[in-house]
Amino acid sequence: MDRRLLLARCRVVLADSGLLPLMALCLIPVWKDGVTWRNAAESLVVGPGVVALALLAAVAQCAGLARRARGSGLPVTVHADDDTQTLTFPGRTWRPEDRDRFKAALLASKRTSGVEETPAGELRFQWRPLRSWRFVRATVSRDGTTGGARLDVRGGEEQRGGDDGRQPGRHGFRLPPGSSFVALCQLVRLAAGDHSPRRGAGAVSREE
């Protein structure tokens, strides 16, 4: 487990769960009455306890992310929380038949919405990585350097679903951290019958 990802998730838990205000409340008696044996003992108990709870929550989140990445061959690093994920598939050139095969797999998936093919041969679509109706944007194109397929996933704000009768997302709400990475892992597994992932320029697994 990447320690930097664990610490980053721990900070997010502290900031978003209301645990930081709880720690601040513990300092009010110290500010009012000064340092006493009682409020010092309370601070020593509550402070580490709050941090321990946040750490446990962060461990659970990182373990869940690792579980979702299982079978994709992608490492879970601190960059897993980045909104933009990029991966290049090695092997043979990204041919029209490969594009058609992947497009058919996308259309057969219940996670896909708004699949479009550009005149340049790119596949653009929206992908639902989570159980809720929240979509990330994804593009599959031919990599100009390797000739293989390049997969770009962009999260950030929640995207609306396509006009296919399915429930759309609520535009403007931010997706949870790690959503783009989860989508990348799912799409890698979707394409696993034809390709296997490797590191590429801008790939999610970076040299440090």
Can I get a quick summary?
With 208 residues, this protein is an alpha+beta fold.
- What portion of residues belong to β-strands? 15-25%
Which descriptor suits the 3D outline?
Answer: elongated
N-to-C span: 15 Å
Class of secondary structure makeup = alpha+beta
Using brief descriptors, characterize the structure shown.
alpha+beta, disordered C terminus, 5 strands, 5 helices, 42% helix, 208 residues
Written overview of the protein:
The chain is α+β, with helices and mostly antiparallel strands and 208 residues long. The chain contains five helices and five strands. The protein has a five-stranded antiparallel β-sheet, with helices on one face. A hairpin with a 6-residue loop joins strand 4 and strand 5.
Topology summary:
Blueprint: H1 3-16, H2 19-33, H3 37-69, E1 84-88, H4 96-108, E2 112-117, E3 123-127, E4 135-142, E5 149-159, H5 179-190
Antiparallel strand pairs: 1-5, 2-3, 3-4, 4-5
Helix pairs in contact: 1-3, 2-3
